[in-house]
What does this fold into?
Amino acid sequence: MSIKKEPDVKELLSCYHCGNDCDNSPIHFDEKIFCCEGCSLVYDILKENNLCTYYNFNNSPGTSQKKSTYKEQFAYLDDEKIKNKLVRFTNGKITSITFYLPQIHCSSCIWLLENLNRINPAIIKSLVNFNRKEATLTYIEEKVSLRQLVEMLSMIGYEPSINLNDSEEKKNSGDKKTTAYKIGIAGFCFGNIMLFSFPEYFSSGSYTGDGFKGVFSYLNFALSLPVFFYCSSQFFVSAANSLKQKFLNIDVPIALGILVMFLRSSYEIISGTGAGYMDTMAGLVFFMLIGRAFQNKTYETISFERDYKSFFPISVMIKKNNNETSIPVSDLEIGNRIIIRNEELIPADSVLIKGDANIDYSFVTGESMPVLVWEGQLIYAGGKQLGTSLELEVVKNVSQSYLTQLWNSSEYKNKNEESSFRQLVNRISHYFTIALIAIALASLGWWVSQNDLAKGLNAFTAVLIIACPCALAISSPFTLGNILRSFGRNKFYLKNYSVVEKLAKVDSIVFDKTGTLTKTNSSQISFTGKILNPEEKKMVRSLVHHSSHPLSRMLDEKLNDVSAIKSENYYEIPGKGIQANVFEVPIKIGSAEFVGVKTTPDTSSVKIYVSFDSKIRGYFSINNEYRQGIEILVGKLKQSGYDLTVLSGDHDGEKNNLETIFGREVSTHFNQTPADKLRFIQALQAQNKNVLMIGDGLNDAGALKQSDVGITISDNINNFSPACDGILNASSFDSLPGILKISEASHRIILGSFAIALLYNIVGLFFAVSGTLSPIIAAILMPISAVTIISFTTGLSNWYAQRKL
It folds into this structure.
């Protein structure tokens, strides 16, 4: 007979789900202990859906379910008007919404929230932004309502914070105000504690009597309470969360130092054995808060999740007084009429005014099936038009975070996004903190053995403060972040700073030809064949006007003396050509193979053939003009040892020109379909090559996504591609060699800042252990070390960028 082992007292007091004390009424379920029915219910739900891996990442990762709920708590979400204010996208079948979930705190939260589809299959996709504590859910509306979705999240411990009157800016403003209040209170108390400590600073009784010393000591104690319980709370909360996850972050030794000083000072004041060190404790908190505020402010200036104005150089065509003009997306306003062509992204929620809308929402929902939209209906930002050009009226401002989310969509995260330097620092910080606490305790033990408790406590506290891996931790993000900012000033915009590290490892560069190496707004065009009459020119322009392909844009500009007319059944095959019916006449424009022409290879120029009703009328010869400085760029890249390749969807009409620019030793491939380009990148990677793909973002999405780094060239067209890692303005194309050199230099700058941080910690520890460094001086020196690292990385990266760009 087996005897069931009773849980010990410690297990009884700790909830398996949330880790809270179970008091005297623990709930036993599945041989585990829970503090309430809510926690046991959440565990049961996770177990039923095979999601108990949630508990493997961290011990007791959940949040307490001891809260009052009522049946109709979320009934207001059934109101269609409220729902429309909350959702980011809906087509009646699939809906996308972003929730603010303040309960998110660890890796288990991320894992669970990104596996919600295992609880409810109606959830297509869920993506967590840990830093913003947000989760974006895409779900099938016919199978689960918004109310049911929120109820499910609430049931598993992640009740969304929903406030229709709040905005992101207000949340950020509230955080800044709280920080300012804490700094202000800590500074006020620190100054007054210093003032009341004068009787202790001066010789006993020379200026004040002993009675005043006692009164001032108690005043210091009173002033220290808001500093300890309010101003320093963030350090204790962070340390507690760290310990709960069995990981020692940098706030653990800081909180321990503050606690030691407060308890020791409180004992001395209350027992009358001394004046304590409340001035040191208040000064430490004050300077630490200032250091954190400075660090956060600096992070804001190089924010890695920048808004669309920072990293989207895409423009959009607006229609005004029957004229089309290109403007930056950041200048788009409500009421603007915009023109969206085939394969172009819709940058803001708009109403369809004119055109046949066939919208691909795969960037938003993951579903590739196009959606038909009728005139007068709403088209959501992030959709991509497939077919003829559209005229839309903007009804909502461009979302600052929505386009960012598209670029960072999980659909395009097949690459390792985490910085190798961040991984290194995370490992170092954990063991560094353990070693730091050991050194602090050893210092205390040594001085106590020397019968000098006061110096031992000073050494203990100073060690915990001065030897901080903060300077080490900020080296990588500040270096790479500042390089991102330098790139941005030169019109090169990266998805995140880990791309800089990947650029530094590139050894092979693959170029798309049309629209990348060649200009889209400058070329020599002539027509060979039976001369087109004005009506036929209108028919040709009616097709090319809808396309965003560089060759189509050239033809559209060439035929701008005639107006485009309505076309039907528009269809474009990437890398091949376009077809449509105009006046019920089927027209094809594209390669010889596409329109059905059998011809011998001709390397004199690029030819675009035209057929009316399956009858060949001739072809447009286009002599491409290559971007200025391309020969110098190629020479620098070859000199640096990069393997270069050119891929083109066109025939080999430009082979001679490309060999003149690149040399015969450089591999060139023509008639490449999007699938061919993708396979070529895979073949290079199979040879352990680190590949940089540079394309125009139109027919290169697969290759851009597959490559180690994918860069899209922007040439004043709306060719944003979420598959890419960065966008390079065409005017800065010749800066590519400098960009690669700066990326390589970033490693050396980071290693140099690591050396400075290590030297600072060694010197600081020496003086702290010897007992000659007071805790308040250590508190002042700690943010100074961060300033030193920031100044070093910023100055050196700026200097290098000025030399190379």
In short: DSSP finds 28 helices and 28 strands in the chain. The radius of gyration is 32 Å. Residues 199 and 542 are 90 Å apart (CA to CA). The first strand starts at residue 27 and ends at 29.
